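User: Hi! I have a protein structure encoded as tokens and I'd like to know what sequence might fold into it. I'm fairly new to this, so please keep things simple.
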């Protein structure tokens, strides 16, 4: 039985080191991509303060399809290039949005969302999906969060088929 340990009173760098340590333990010995995405979502949602959604979309048949997540029910299919998630796939890089109302084409799955961080999952040159984090707080994510979640994406990919 895995128990997530609360992370309080640390710098962001220390926070993400500890989060990554717990994630490695959580994913160890399992390579199923759906199971690992489900547990990664749960760990992110449980440990990161100020989130209202944390989850995965996977590229299938040329569009993003909803994967495991924590939070309110979300839109199931997103075309490449649409919304923040589709932009991250089209650009093959992380998209950090401090104010979703200022991002043209943002898809509001939850009207409470105010800021968003989307990290592409890249196997070599191929994007296989994204990790998407939403927050009801404006400016919740900064470049330290970006680096931390990019590390999480790398751990997820290395641990999963
Ligand atoms: N806001 C995202 C859509 C996915 S939900 O936030 C879960 C977007 O604009 O791509």
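Assistant: Happy to help. Inverse folding works backwards from shape to sequence: for each of the 161 positions I chose a residue that suits the local structure. Here it is:
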């Amino acid at each position: 039985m895995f128990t997530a340990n609360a992370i309080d009173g640390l710098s962001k760098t220390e926070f993400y080191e500890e989060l990554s340590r717990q994630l490695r333990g959580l994913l160890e010995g399992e390579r199923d991509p759906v199971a690992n995405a489900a547990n990664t979502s749960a760990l992110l949602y449980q440990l990161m303060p100020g989130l209202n959604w944390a989850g995965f979309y996977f590229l299938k048949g040329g569009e993003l399809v909803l994967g495991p997540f924590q939070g309110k029910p979300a839109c199931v299919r997103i075309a490449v290039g649409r919304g923040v998630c589709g932009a991250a796939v089209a650009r093959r890089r992380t998209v950090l949005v401090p104010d979703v109302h200022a991002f043209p084409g943002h898809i509001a799955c939850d009207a409470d969302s105010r800021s968003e961080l989307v990290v592409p999952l890249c196997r070599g040159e191929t994007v296989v999906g994204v990790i998407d984090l939403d927050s009801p707080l404006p400016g919740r994510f900064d470049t330290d969060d970006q680096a931390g979640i990019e590390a999480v994406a790398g751990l997820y990919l290395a641990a999963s088929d």
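A useful reference point when you look it over: Helices lie at 12-27, 33-47, 83-91, 143-159. Feel free to ask if any position seems puzzling.
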